[in-house]
UniProtKB/TrEMBL annotation:
Residue ranges of every copy of the CHK kinase-like domain listed in the record: 139-335
Gene Ontology molecular function, alphabetical: transferase activity
Swiss-Prot/TrEMBL keywords: Transferase
Designated gene of the protein: Dvir\GJ15249
Domain of life (superkingdom): Eukaryota
Pfam families: EcKL
Protein name: CHK kinase-like domain-containing protein
Length: 422
């Protein structure tokens, strides 16, 4: 009889919805056969506490035997990643954004079609083996760690080599989505909302709006204390008076813009890198497509630039990275050869400039969390952020980051020149 063994950190509250029948079905789907016997399940946490806000991540080792009539079969093993979204009040905005349904559709339908368009020369995400809606929204993926993929450091930001690779892969992903939209014009109808959805931001007491408002106020307080930034501090104060409208406008569609499928949450923890024996980066695969949105490529590009680059790369390599992105976008569209117009470099720059407001939001709304030292994130969770005192203390802690302050001293004058505060 197969049983489930939990690591010590899970024994107090094991995920009971992940049972033997469920993992049996996972294994049958992954191996494409029902002629297997599940012999063991070992479940552990799949990410450090404070690294995932909206979901619980588990790493599960499945032991099994092939049933082919031979009595002396040895156990084989497969690793999977399980992502469960608890049904709690603090994540009600995820229901509003239909993140479970969107992610399921993306993995089951979109990514395989995009990869087929590129003749399977590229993988844009892991395989999805199984999903269920009750009692918790749950998805089961292949564990890319088995193939050598790992996360980079979020605290320091990515160097130029990593960023160049991300630009190439993102351009291929965006280009393939543009082609798919010509073949199936209705396929992206479910992708009208992303992180800054008007529905998700509608409630003053909703978690998203309270979180971003708290970050905005702390930003204003910080910049007010800097000599020489008085004018910018005043403009930030004016911005915060209409913060919700600015956030909604940063993502809202614009007539005649270039449209691609944006990942929607493209920061360093949502990409996995693979290295060779000399520790040279060779490949990158994206994960976590629950906030994807059909719209301007300026959404993904600005979000990535202002959450995930080291400051040196942001300061000195941004134009080169945009050129790499445009070159690969153009090359991919031409190679796919389905008549999709290739945007000019000037058109791309216009898209990025038009979405600088999204970059500003990412810079004060997301980077403070990204740049936190891991020693400070063990108590970060959506449930804790529903407590006003905890949120205040944590926001002050985040905005005390040296990396964040150095980054903001560079980016805020840039955003002012771009007209973001006007």
């Amino acid at each position: 009889m197969c049983s489930i063994v939990y690591d010590q950190e899970l024994q107090a509250s094991p995920p009971k919805h992940l049972d033997v029948p469920f993992f049996t079905e996972v294994l049958e789907t992954a191996l494409r056969t029902s002629r297997i016997q599940l012999t063991g399940i070992h479940c552990s946490m799949g990410s450090s506490t404070g690294e995932n806000y909206c979901s619980q991540i588990y790493r599960v080792k499945l032991s099994y035997r092939q049933q082919n009539g031979k009595a002396s079969q040895k156990d084989e093993q497969m690793m999977v990643i399980v992502k469960s979204i608890p049904r709690i009040d603090s994540v009600e905005f995820l229901e509003d954004l239909q993140v479970y349904l969107k992610e399921k559709i993306t993995y089951y339908e979109l990514l395989p079609r995009l990869e087929l368009l590129t003749q399977c020369k590229r993988r844009f995400g892991p395989k999805l083996y199984q999903c269920m809606k009750q009692p918790q929204n749950t998805l089961v993926f292949e564990d890319l760690g088995q193939h050598g993929y790992v996360m980079a450091s979020r605290e320091t930001g990515l160097d130029e080599t990593h960023c160049r690779l991300v630009m190439e892969r993102l351009a291929e992903f965006h280009a393939a989505s543009m082609v798919l939209a010509t073949l199936d014009p209705d396929i992206f109808e479910a992708y009208g909302d992303g992180m800054l959805s008007p529905d998700g931001l509608a409630k003053d007491d909703g978690l998203l709006m309270r979180f971003f408002a708290g970050n905005g106020q702390q930003l204003h307080k910080l910049v007010n204390s800097w000599s020489g930034y008085e004018r910018i501090a005043g403009k930030i104060g004016k911005y915060l008076e209409q913060q919700r409208a600015h956030l909604v406008r940063a993502q809202a569609p614009v007539d005649k813009e270039i449209k691609v499928l944006n990942h929607g949450d493209l920061w360093v923890n949502n990409m996995l890198f693979k290295y060779n024996g000399a520790q040279q980066v060779q490949d990158v695969i994206f994960i976590d497509f629950q906030l994807s949105i059909w719209g301007s490529p300026g959404i993904d590009l600005n979000y990535f630039f202002y959450t995930s680059l080291s400051l040196d790369v942001l300061k000195h390599k941004r134009p080169q990275l945009l050129k790499i992105y445009h070159n690969r976008l153009s090359e991919t569209l031409l190679n796919l050869d389905l008549g999709v117009p290739v945007p000019s470099y000037e058109q791309l720059l216009a898209e990025v400039h038009r979405r600088e407001g999204y970059g500003f939001f990412a810079n004060y709304g997301i980077l403070p969390t990204v740049s936190q030292d891991k020693s400070e994130t063990s108590d970060n969770s959506l449930e804790n952020f529903t407590d006003a005192d905890f949120t205040k203390q944590k926001t002050e802690q985040m905005f005390a980051s040296t990396r964040l302050a150095e980054t903001l001293r560079y980016t805020l004058p840039h955003f002012e020149r771009a007209g973001v505060f006007d």
